[in-house]
Amino acid sequence: MAIVTPADDLRQLSALLDEALDLPEEDRIAWLDSRNGIAEPLRARLRELLSHRAGSDDFTLPTLSRYNEADIAKLVGTTNACPPTDAPMANQTIGPYRLIREIGRGGMGSVWLAERSDGALKRQVALKLPHIALAENQLVDRFAHERDILAGLVHPHIARLYDAGITEDGRPYLAMEYVAGQALGDYCQSHDLDLAARLVIFRQVLRAIQYAHSQLVVHRDLKPGNILVTDEGDVRLLDFGIAKLLHSDATLATELTELGGPLTLQYAAPEQILGQRIGAGADIYSLGMLLYELLAGALPFRLRRVTRGAIEEAILSSQPALPSQAGRGRVAWAKRLAGDLDTILLKALKKDPAERYLTASALAEDIDRYLNGEPVLARPDTVWYRAGKFVSRYRWGVAAVTTIIIALAAGLGAALWQAGVAEENAEKAQKEARTAQAVKEFMRGVFYANSAQQPDPAKARETTARELLDLGAARIDAALAEAPEAKQEMLMIFTELYSQLGLSAKSLEFAQQRVRLLRELKGASVEDRVYALLLVAITLRNQSIDDPEQRTILDEALALVGVEGDTAPALRGVVLTVAANYFADHEFARSLDLAHQAFRLGRDVGDFASISINAARADLLVGDYGRARTEAGEGIAASLAYNLAQESGQGTYMQLPVLYECLGLAEAALGEIAAAKDHFQQAVRQGRKTFGDNDPEVVRIEGRLAQFLVHQGQRAEGEALLALAASKLARPSPGGARLAFEALQAVGEAQADAGQLQPALGHLAKALAMRSPDLDASPTVAALLRAQARALFGVGRKAEAESVLNRAIAMREKAGVRAADVLGEEAGLRVRLPVR
Amino acid sequence: MSSGDHDGMAQLLAAARGGEDGAVARLCAALYQDLRVVARSRLRSHQPFTLLNTTALVHESFLRLSRTGRVDVSDRNHFLGYAAKVMRSVIVGFVRERMTEKRGAGAGHVPLNEEIVSGAADEEAEIVRIHNALEELADIDPRVVRVVEMRYFAGMREKEIAAVLNVTERTVRRDWEKARLLLRSSLQ
Predict the structure, then answer these.
(1) How far is CA B102 from CA A618, B40, B45, B126, B155, in A?
(2) Partner A, chain B 129-148, Cβ-Cβ below 8 Å
(3) Which of A118, A148, A221, A753 is catalytic?
(4) Which of the listed residues A658, A685, A706 is the one where a domain comes to its end?
(5) Residues A125, A85: one domain?
(6) Which of A154, A173, A179 best probes binding to B when mutated, by most B CB atoms within 10 angstroms?
(7) pTM of the predicted protein model
(8) Could you tell me the residue range of the domain that residue A818 belongs to?
């Protein structure tokens, strides 16, 4: 600390300054000369201070920025910011800055090279100023917004924000790092960079965007002019003017069209054109466009007329030309572009954001692989690849209602299964527009109703999500009676929202209502109807595993997808799988048949991983371990291929852990001990990574591995794992009743085999209580009962053991299972029965 | 801030305004909690404080509290005036905390981009220096200290500061000039 003035001196100095500052500036030195009673060091100091004229000083307290002035003005009800009246000119002072020359101009405002006018810091800045006509509240909002976003971004490849504020006359400004450089494309041209060098420099752009995304900022306006390269070859990203905070609840205009034209259309993603929800994927698309242009020398769409409409249409519906064939690039490069670079670029330019690289770093990694001569992870399209995307969002075990609905709400379902029916599109688009309008009006109505019930706006604001939802729910029938399309959509949204709030009974109610509506609605698509039914079935199962209503619902869904060949295989596959899963406990033979039918659809169908799990589990139950091993193996192969294509090898494909578990179970039964252990361990590792340590799927897999280890005589290892798994059973379990049951069963069975009989009995009884007492043909429950019988024998409760064993045998018989090892186990238990 | 003093903020402001004994201290304690929470949630620990974000935080705090009805919008200037004072201690507290952490963490950690981080860290150090200089001044000329706080930590305008202190704008300008000279004298 450089505080050199002792307190007494400071006090005296303060008093003397009071005297001096009351005088006009020009008289102060004269006053000092004539003032008596000032000791020397202080007099000199005072003279020094007073001789510095205001503003010409080298010490200035930093200028102050103001926060979201318009917001505050709105609250207070007035604005004291007077709009500036004149356009900026060179040498003009804006806040603490002096303008030097204009270096850029756009729809929103101009950018000036400027420097601090108070000399506090010798640095040049790029000063961004709004157009005069715009310098009103909305723009001030925008500036505050950009400032908030930039203030959070500190990265070597992003031009930094130094300062922001509003001048005394109400003019907002942003002072940013001044970058002397060329636009990316120009730089590559003027430095005659070859293809590899262009890729290397582009990686800097990717790093900057990856960083911005990690801070939850989407740029949304990536174009050549916003990417500068300095003479040293360093990239700087500029202009986060229309950037958006992901997940922000700011009500700032999110649609480009509302922003008055800063958007450079050619680089905009389809979802931006459509005014849909913008995520990081929009930036990935724009990056793809930029890189395409950089490498191929042209943009991917050839247009006869360059009009806004033509560009929009190309972005929305034309498939981009292969970069290697884009024509205007160098001939020598075409060969190098063909293959991997074509694939990389087309993946980045997918119409559907979910099909693009999920992150900028995934794109960067593929570029690295290309540069290193390694195979890239992007794959050319296949049918399976396309259809797989939808169902991959639907985690089989959890059968998460919300993921299905979200995928449906995103319009993916319809888009995928209606590929090839473009003729219907015009009519469909009209219908969708009408629906969207009705939905919008409905939502508005909900909020009006809220304010009508609650005339005090402060109270109205405090209405909870639940209350608002109930308010909306009560209005659906009346408000949307005339618009069944919108109504069914609204019902789906309410199903999802109630499910999100954990109100599953309410959620189910709306799902069922939607099913009823769709049954009557003329022209409802099979897809919509089937998915509505599956949602109900899955919601029912998550609440109560054996709820008999599932049977009716699933029979209806099965009837809708008809016989093989009639329906899109992907849709059929999902229905068969969900149905097989239910019937496994009720009509096992039918379940086995459904599971095999689904498996026969082949790996090009939708969620092949879930289909394989289902088939493998059925074959494990029936004792066909070889077939189960094949099914699990094929599921793994397909998932890995899919995984490579989708997730840049991160190993996050959701079904893999369960597939490895099935494989391990099959191998263990076949006596392939080493492979089984390896695969069980893989299942545990990946499961923890994918689902989290405490997920019921992980607990179940740990239980199965523990049981295997105990059987193999590796008791210490097995018991440690078992203790861990058991400790997690006490926690509340996410993922519905079915998974909770499976976890209890696995741990209970393993404990029975490990000789931990009392805990085993506790867990098995708890699991059994989750199932309907009417079950009489479930091989799964039969296995559970056998374990219970083992434990009961162990503790000497022989009579009970006998009755449980008899029930297990009857159930297994009725299911039609005659697996040799199961029969052997039963026989082994029988010989321990008391002789009568 | 606990939920119990939901109405307390507006009352405290009124009491502070009316010069009631201890009201300012209680108001500041309440604001301190609030601003700390806002600051913690908004500023990531690896990012240095700048005037930009400290000012923003004070205003954000006001907007938040006024939207929930805990502060009346007509009290904006007074609120900002007190919040500026509190922001000063919040920021200084944070910066010191971080300095301790850094010393504790040893020299192992090197920021990703030293150059960029150090620019803002300089500003952080300056905020602390100004805080210390203001401490020296607190007994000698409390009004000057408040003027600096309001301009520096809450980005308030002369007119707004004048309204809070119940003086003329000219007086505010004079105080500011005096502050500038005194701080110059102290900091050099």
Answers:
(1) 58, 18, 11, 18, 29
(2) 129-130, 132-133, 136-137, 139-141, 144, 148
(3) A221
(4) A706
(5) yes
(6) A154
(7) 0.44
(8) 711-830
What the block records as the tokens of A780 is: 């799964």
Q: Does A148 sit within 8 Å of B180, measured CB to CB?
A: no
**B38 has a chain A CB within 8 A of its CB:** no
Does one domain contain both A85 and A228?
Answer: no
Residue A283 among the catalytic residues: no
User: Over the range A174-184, which residues count as b (16 or more CB within 10 Å of their CB) and which as e?
Assistant: bbbbbbebbeb
Question: Which comes out higher in pLDDT, residue A701 or A327?
Answer: A701
pLDDT digits (tens, 9 = 90+) for A156-173: 898 887 877 776 666 678
Does B73 contact A at CB distance below 8 Å? yes
Q: C-alpha angle with apex A787: A786 to A791, nearest 5 degrees?
A: 115
- pLDDT over 90 percentage in chain A: 22
B88 touches chain A (CB under 8 A): no
Same domain, A618 and A701: yes
User: What is the pLDDT, as a whole number, of residue A152?
Assistant: 74
DSSP string, A217-259: EE-----GGGEEEETTS-EEE---TT-EETT----S--SGGGG
A427 plus A443 within the same structural domain: yes
Are A397 and A368 found together in one domain?
no
Domain edge (last residue) among A126, A142, A177? A177
Number of domains within chain A: 5
Q: Do B73 and A75 touch (CB under 8 A)?
A: yes
Per-residue pLDDT, averaged over A389-412, amounts to 32
Confidence of residue A683 (pLDDT cuts 50, 70, 90): very high
Residues A513 and A652 in one domain: yes
Residue in chain B nearest A42 by alpha carbon: B185
CATH number of the domain that residue A438 is part of = 1.25.40.10
Q: What count of residues does chain B have?
A: 188
Judge whether A835 lies within some domain: no
Q: Chain A window 139-178: which residues touch B at a Cβ cutoff of 8 Å? A: 147-148, 151-152, 154-156, 160-161, 163-165, 168
Phi, psi of A173 (to 5 degrees): -145, 155
Which residue does chain A place closest to B173, by CA atoms? A21
A730 versus A409: the higher-pLDDT residue is A730
Highest mean pLDDT among A123-127, A374-378, A445-449, B123-127: A123-127
To which H or E segment does residue A115 belong? strand A109-116
User: Among all residues of chain B, which has the CA nearest to that of A77?
Assistant: B73
Q: Which residues of A touch B111 (CB under 8 A)?
A: none
Greatest C-alpha distance within chain A: 128
Tokens at A831, concatenated: 């010989």
Q: Return the domain boundaries, chain B.
A: 3-187
A554 and A524 co-located in one domain: yes
Assess contact for A107 and A265: CB atoms under 8 A.
no
Distance CA A625, CA A630 (A): 9
The answer, for B62 touching chain A at a CB cutoff of 8 Å, is yes
Does the ipTM exceed 0.90?
A: no
Same domain (yes/no): A87, A225 = no
What mean pLDDT comes out for the span A30-55? Answer: 78
Phi, psi of A231 (to 5 degrees): -60, -25
Does residue B36 sit at the A interface (CB-CB below 8 Å)?
no
In terms of C-beta distances under 8 Å and separation of at least 24 residues, what long-range contacts does A828-833 make, across chains too?
A829/A786, A829/A789, A829/A790, A829/A793, A829/A801, A829/A805, A830/A805, A832/A793, A832/A798, A833/A798, A833/A801, A833/A802, A833/A805
A737-760 tens-digit pLDDT: 888 899 999 999 999 999 999 999
Any idea which of A89-103, A125-139, A761-775, B21-35 has the lowest mean pLDDT?
A125-139
| Cβ–Cβ below 8 Å for A147 and B52 | yes
Tell how far CA A641 is from the center of its chain.
22
* pLDDT of A659: 92
Using pLDDT thresholds of 50, 70 and 90, give the confidence band for residue A616. very high
